[in-house]
Amino acid sequence: MSLLRCFKPVPRAFYTLTSINNYHTGIQTVCMAGHNRWSKIKRPKAIADLERSKELSKFSKEIQTAIKVEGDSNPETNKRLAAIVLRARSANVSKTGIERAIESGIKKLKSQDTHIYEAKGPSGYAMIIEAETSEKERTKGELKKILSRQGGSLSEPKTMLFLFDQKGFVMVSKDSLTEDCDLLEVAIEIGAEDVKEELNSEEAEEEDEVCFVCESKDLESVKAAAEEKELEVTQSYISYVPHTVTNLSPSDIGNAKVMLTKLNEHPQVIRVHTNIEK
After folding, report:
1. In a domain, 90, yes or no
2. Highest mean pLDDT among 11-15, 113-117, 197-201, 226-230
3. Which range is the signal sequence, renumbered to this chain (predicted)?
C-alpha cells in the first residue's frame, strides 16, 4: 500500500491550501494559508477596539452624569442627555452601547450618592474630586492608588475645600440667543452674576454654548428664568471655582495631565476640579 493513501485529503471548501511536494518521501505536505494575514491585522484591530472602548466609556460616564444631574433619563425631555446622545452617535457609538449607558444611569440614580474627595498634587496644587458611588471607602482606596502613583495624596476633609467657591453654571445654546443681544444684560435679567463666552473643555460639552455663572443656591432660579426667556438650557450644574491659582512648570503640567486623565477615567468619577492655572 502506498504511504500516500494513509493521508485523507483536506476538503478545499474549508481551507486554502498550499501544496509542497516532498521528493524524498513522496508525501504531500499541506500548509495552511491565512495565519500570516491575521497576524498583520490583529494589532491594528486591537488598537481600534481599544479606542472604541474608550469612547464608549467616556460617553457612558457623560450619559450617566446627565441622568443624575437632571434626574431624567428621557432624551426627549432631558436636553443635556439629548446633546450627549447626539454626540455619541456622531462618534459612531453603537445604539446598544447608548441604551446600556442609559439603563446604567437609571440604576445609579436609584442606588448611588455623590461624594467629595479632597486631594493634593505633587506640586502643591489642590484637587476636588466628585464621585458617584455606593461604596465610598472602596472608591476612596482606588483614588488613593491613582494619586500615589503620580506623587499625589488624598487630604483630610475640608483641608482643600476652603480654597474653592461653589458656583452654579447654566449653559445656554448660542442658537437660542439673538445676534445683537447684550449678554451682560441677559445675565442680569435672569439673575446671574457673570457670563462667559470663551469656555474650556471642562466647562463646555459643545462649542456653541454660553455659560451664565451664579451663586450655587441660585442655580435652579437662574435656570428657570433662562427657560422663561425661551433660552435653550443644555445643562446646569454646580462646580468648584478656585480663589487663587497655582502656576506649574512644564514638567509638572505634564505630570498633572497624566494624573487628571487617570482620575477622570475612573468609572465613579464625575468631575475633577483643580486650582491649576489654565
Report:
1. yes
2. 226-230
3. none
